[in-house]
Amino acid sequence: MQEVITKIFIFIFGSCIGSFLNVCIFRMPQEKYSIISPSSYCPSCKKSIFWYDNIPVLAFLFLGGRCRFCKAKISFQYPLVEILAGLAFLAVYIGWGISLDALILDVFICGLIVSTFIDIKWRIIPDEISLGGIAVGLIFALLKSLPIIKEFPRIPLVDSFFGVIIGGFLVYASGQLGNFLFFKLMKKESIEGETESIGGGDVKLLAMIGSFIGWKLAILTFFIAPFLGAAVGVYVLLRKKSHLIPYGPFLSIAALLALIYGDTIIRLLLIR
């Protein structure tokens, strides 16, 4: 019974963090306010939201998905992010308990959630998430390395450092190759006047991913992501005559798959 209560608490705590992530998703791309102030408000009528209207998921249901004051629709993104964060925190707790590794993974997943939803809507990944995430990932790796520093170079910090370098390089190199094939060799340009096949935000995102999960899983993430994005990419290319898709979500999903199944996949590849 106590374990069930603990899991419920973890889910609620994660969903509360998800509520804060929604603030980051809404405010970071627009750079209107800080993520701390002012307090939450309705984007339509600009009125401040009561604290009890900020209760994760439940407030959305009680309000019928509309603002209390102006009755404008509330995006389904809000409860979705809260539920995803709650489930993520619960899954991490089940797998890693309450530990430094669990804290690292929670921070990592939060970064992926924010970057994913911002990239879907705005086609950008804020440097606060990618570059800030690189710094945080390296710091966490350093903390994990301190007790075994004598085992250098077989310490998490080295794995994290090369994860940043290799992860960023792989996406950058593939982007340069894509630019050459699309814009130089084939002399094509999309209807939107795009000049890059892969944005700089994606380069920094995989570098951030590498700082958390290391260079081996960063490489695996790099190769998994195109398979996830292939169907969407083909649709956009045929329908809109454009190759531009938000690639951040596919890198994020691929990173989670690599994190969960990466060791098994690498072991199978080595056996073969």
String of helices and strands: HHHHHHHH
Inertia-based shape: globular
What is the strand content? under 5%
Largest β sheet strand count, sense and barrel closure: none
What value does the average pLDDT take?
A: 89
Structural class: mainly alpha
Number of E strands: 0
What do you see in this structure?
The protein is mainly alpha-helical and 272 residues long. Helices cover 69% and strands 0% of the residues. It has eight helices and no strands. The protein has helices at 2-27, 58-62, 77-96, 100-122, 127-145, 156-185, 200-240, 248-271. Helix 7 (200-240) crosses helix 8. The N and C termini lie far apart (45 Å). The mean pLDDT is 89.
How would you concisely characterize the structure shown here?
The chain has 272 residues and is mainly α. It contains eight helices and no strands.
Task: Provide tags for this entry.
single chain; 272 residues; mainly alpha; 0% strand; globular
What's the arrangement of secondary structure elements?
Elements (H helix, E strand, L loop, with lengths): L1 H26 L30 H5 L14 H20 L3 H23 L4 H19 L10 H30 L14 H41 L7 H24 L1
Helix pairs in contact: 1-3, 1-4, 3-4, 4-5, 4-8, 5-6, 5-7, 6-7, 7-8
